[in-house]
């Protein structure tokens, strides 16, 4: 068992690519910490630095309290499983599982018992005398995992171990990984780009984008109380509604979120009112999950949006409606780049991101711009695809659609579920951690 502490760990690849930007993070003893983020955000790089397979450019790594930047991989007591857990093709499953113990010159009786015990836990005891070539993908990944943990490392690192498996196998193995690493009590860092995998597996999730840590917390904390618009959007199973609004406080009587055609009133008694009022006169971004909106009859009171039902979409377990509410939608803002504003490896300079966001806001907020929008930017495709246009509000209807296409629909807004962000995508009211 082991703790892992990253203190401002940075990786710049030769050539100047900034892959990991001052990550500070701690994995507790026995914890299953999931590192989540889109492809290319630096997850594997971080994991490889922890394993000692990649040099740390700056910052400090501590394993079990000991400074480990310079420690050789074999001295770290770490086991790693990759997406394609490569096995020894000419050894049987038994031979693959026992190999690490044989290298360590373990007692053969102990090896035999341990291999059998582990193969039962991984449900591959029937395959012990077969060679990897005769196994299914799921079975091969089980063997790869078994081989990694057979020596009972103090730290277990897994890099997208399920991403090459089909959906059914993924779910099955996901549950087994969860119970196995918890039963062993080994500190585990598990990398994935799949938000469902992260939410279902993790004790805590650390979510990153473009090499920068965005948020860390339990699955419930980061889903319900995300630190940034990026996190909120990345964790939404349906596309998150992100709408531009202007904050107004008429005669200081209440707070109004002004969406142009619609206004939503927030009372001063709302716990977020003070933080929001600091943005009076400015634009903010309001995030609304499709399930925070509920159809209500015409004439009903309370905060709501209304518009024509442009499309209905059947998803099997639920219907989604696309409501034309005439409100400008904004794409999920990219997180702010590093504090010192240096260029990251994709060539996105700090002011490039901010500049793009400003251009989006200028285009979307009537009268709010300087009339100098770059014509090329008018052709920037709207977020999402298919049915989702800029002005559509996505509403979750459940298993029975209450509307037909072309109907006039009205939806109540659950104020407590509104997520409020600055135009840079940071939460206006600080998340509770
Ligand atoms: N050896 C390398 N040299 C240069 N750039 C690399 C190298 N390995 C990865 N990268 C780049 O670093 C970024 C992060 O990569 P990676 O850590 O593999 O991301 P992830 O695992 O999240 O998909 C990517 O842009 C990738 O192209
Ligand atoms: Mg990777």
UniProtKB/TrEMBL annotation:
<protein>
    <submittedName>
        <fullName>Sugar ABC transporter ATP-binding protein</fullName>
    </submittedName>
</protein>
<dbReference type="GO" id="GO:0005524">
    <property type="term" value="F:ATP binding"/>
</dbReference>
<feature type="domain" description="ABC transporter">
    <location>
        <begin position="4"/>
        <end position="235"/>
    </location>
</feature>
<dbReference type="InterPro" id="IPR017871">
    <property type="entry name" value="ABC_transporter-like_CS"/>
</dbReference>
<dbReference type="GO" id="GO:0055052">
    <property type="term" value="C:ATP-binding cassette (ABC) transporter complex, substrate-binding subunit-containing"/>
</dbReference>
<keyword id="KW-0813">Transport</keyword>
<dbReference type="GO" id="GO:0008643">
    <property type="term" value="P:carbohydrate transport"/>
</dbReference>
<dbReference type="GO" id="GO:0016887">
    <property type="term" value="F:ATP hydrolysis activity"/>
</dbReference>
<keyword id="KW-0067">ATP-binding</keyword>
<dbReference type="Pfam" id="PF00005">
    <property type="entry name" value="ABC_tran"/>
</dbReference>
<dbReference type="GO" id="GO:0140359">
    <property type="term" value="F:ABC-type transporter activity"/>
</dbReference>
<dbReference type="InterPro" id="IPR008995">
    <property type="entry name" value="Mo/tungstate-bd_C_term_dom"/>
</dbReference>
<dbReference type="InterPro" id="IPR047641">
    <property type="entry name" value="ABC_transpr_MalK/UgpC-like"/>
</dbReference>
<keyword id="KW-0547">Nucleotide-binding</keyword>
<dbReference type="InterPro" id="IPR003593">
    <property type="entry name" value="AAA+_ATPase"/>
</dbReference>
<dbReference type="InterPro" id="IPR015855">
    <property type="entry name" value="ABC_transpr_MalK-like"/>
</dbReference>
<feature type="region of interest" description="Disordered">
    <location>
        <begin position="364"/>
        <end position="390"/>
    </location>
</feature>
<dbReference type="InterPro" id="IPR003439">
    <property type="entry name" value="ABC_transporter-like_ATP-bd"/>
</dbReference>
<feature type="compositionally biased region" description="Basic and acidic residues">
    <location>
        <begin position="371"/>
        <end position="380"/>
    </location>
</feature>
<dbReference type="InterPro" id="IPR027417">
    <property type="entry name" value="P-loop_NTPase"/>
</dbReference>
């Amino acid at each position: 068992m082991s703790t892992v502490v990253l203190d401002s760990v940075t990786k710049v690849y030769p050539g100047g690519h900034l892959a990991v930007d001052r990550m500070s993070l701690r994995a507790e003893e026995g914890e299953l910490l999931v590192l989540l983020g889109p492809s290319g955000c630096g997850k594997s790089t971080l994991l490889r630095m922890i394993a000692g397979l990649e040099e740390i450019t700056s910052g400090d790594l501590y394993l079990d309290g000991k400074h480990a930047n310079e420690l050789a991989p074999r001295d770290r007591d770490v086991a790693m499983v990759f997406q394609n857990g490569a096995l020894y093709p000419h050894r049987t499953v038994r031979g693959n599982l026992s190999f690490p113990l044989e290298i360590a010159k373990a007692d053969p009786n102990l090896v035999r018992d341990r291999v059998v015990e582990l193969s039962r836990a991984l449900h591959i005891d029937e395959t012990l005398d077969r060679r990897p070539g005769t196994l299914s993908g799921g079975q091969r990944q089980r063997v790869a995992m078994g081989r990694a943990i057979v020596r009972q490392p103090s730290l277990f690192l897994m890099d997208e171990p399920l991403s090459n498996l089909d959906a059914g196998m993924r779910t099955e193995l996901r549950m087994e990984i969860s119970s196995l690493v918890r039963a062993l009590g080994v500190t585990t860092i598990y990398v994935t780009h799949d938000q469902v995998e992260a939410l279902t597996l993790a004790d805590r999730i650390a979510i990153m984008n473009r090499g920068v840590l965005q948020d860390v917390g339990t699955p419930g904390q980061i889903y319900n109380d995300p630190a940034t618009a990026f996190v909120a959007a990345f964790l939404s199973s349906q596309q998150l509604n992100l709408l531009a609004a202007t904050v107004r406080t008429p005669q200081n009587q209440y707070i109004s979120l002004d969406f142009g055609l619609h206004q939503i009133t927030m009372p001063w008694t709302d716990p977020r009112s003070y933080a929001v009022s600091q943005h009076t006169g400015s634009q903010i971004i309001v995030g609304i999950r499709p399930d925070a909106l509920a159809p209500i009859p015409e004439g009903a009171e309370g905060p709501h949006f209304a518009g024509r039902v442009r499309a209905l979409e059947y998803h099997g377990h639920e219907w989604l409606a696309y409501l034309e509410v005439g409100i400008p939608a904004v794409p999920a803002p990219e997180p702010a780049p590093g504090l010192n504003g240096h260029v990251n490896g994709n060539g996105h300079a700090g002011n490039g991101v901010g500049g793009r966001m400003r251009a989006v806001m200028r285009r979307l907020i009537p009268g709010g711009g300087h009339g100098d929008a770059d014509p090329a930017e008018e052709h920037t495709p709207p977020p999402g695809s298919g049915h989702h246009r800029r002005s559509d509000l996505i509403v979750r209807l459940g298993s029975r659609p209450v509307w037909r296409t072309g109907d006039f629909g009205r939806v109540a807004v659950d104020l407590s579920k509104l997520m409020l962000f600055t135009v840079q995508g940071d939460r206006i009211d600080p998340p509770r951690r």
